[in-house]
Amino acid sequence: MDLTPGTVAELTVVREAPFGYFLSNGTEDVLLHHRDIVEPFDPEAVQTVFLYQDHQGRLAATNVIPDIRLGTYGWAEVAGTKEKLGVFVSIGIHKDMLLSVDDLPPIRSLWPEKGDRLYITLDLDKHGRLFAKLAEENMVRDLAKQAGREMWNKDVTGHVFRLTKAGSSIITDEGFIGFIHESQRKNEPRLGQKVEGRVIDVKEDGTLNVSLLGRAYEALDKDAENILAYMDSRGGKMPYWDKSMPEEIQERFGISKAAFKRALGRLMKNGTVYQEEGWTYRKEGK
């Protein structure tokens, strides 16, 4: 039987070389390089190895057996990117696998970055070269569990596995499928990116609607912090108050007047600031 990259084979050592051992199935030889050997290693024993292609395109072997092979799926971490080619992912062996640019979003900023995670398998192109391939959406959904109503309003963390015009799909660390509508995020996350959000709905099919926007009180705290930081940069005062024009507020703080008034009201309520004649001042010691 021919030796096929991306598969596991049982081979015997036929000779030793300065850089490793040559293994054979009786008709074809393949190199097991020293760097691909995990100790302990017994040259007299039958070797169970994973076959792949080295950087020169030659068939090679390793006795590290990855979970991701031809016909099997798993999570792989992005090891790096290369323009015009795609991204490289680690499956646990010495050589990283290429995920082609054809499998990636057309917008470059949405490409996975180093450390992101993708659910992939391995495949062979028409020339017999081994490469990584994104799992189809149904394969990811086959992994998923159904969420119960107790997940409502819970914080979740997950990785993005699908991008569409309407939003992003994630699978959470617990194994639930979540959807982030474009209205529930400030920026579109990358494919493979780890995101943190909160559950805003549990659907009848056990999937989640997730928001990456902060809860109202969390957003309020951030707005209040930004206001105080601006005041501190001006000696503890600013020429804005709750009757300032919405355009001025938007230009200076990047928030609506309603959000500004909520944050300012909270700061006044807890005694941190006060207002006089169109200005807002920090109280001493606050």
Automatic annotation (TrEMBL):
Pfam families assigned to the protein according to its UniProt record, in alphabetical order: CvfB_1st, CvfB_2nd, S1_2, WHD_CvfB
Domain of life, per lineage: Bacteria
A GO molecular function held by the record: nucleic acid binding
InterPro entries: CvfB_fam (IPR014464), CvfB_S1_2nd (IPR048588), CvfB_S1_3rd (IPR048587), CvfB_S1_st (IPR039566), CvfB_WH (IPR040764), NA-bd_OB-fold (IPR012340), S1_domain (IPR003029), WH-like_DNA-bd_sf (IPR036388)
S1 motif domain mapped to chain residues: 153-213
Family from the record: Belongs to the CvfB family.
Protein name per UniProt: S1 motif domain-containing protein
Organism, as annotated: Heyndrickxia coagulans
Upper classification of the organism: Bacteria, Bacillati, Bacillota, Bacilli, Bacillales
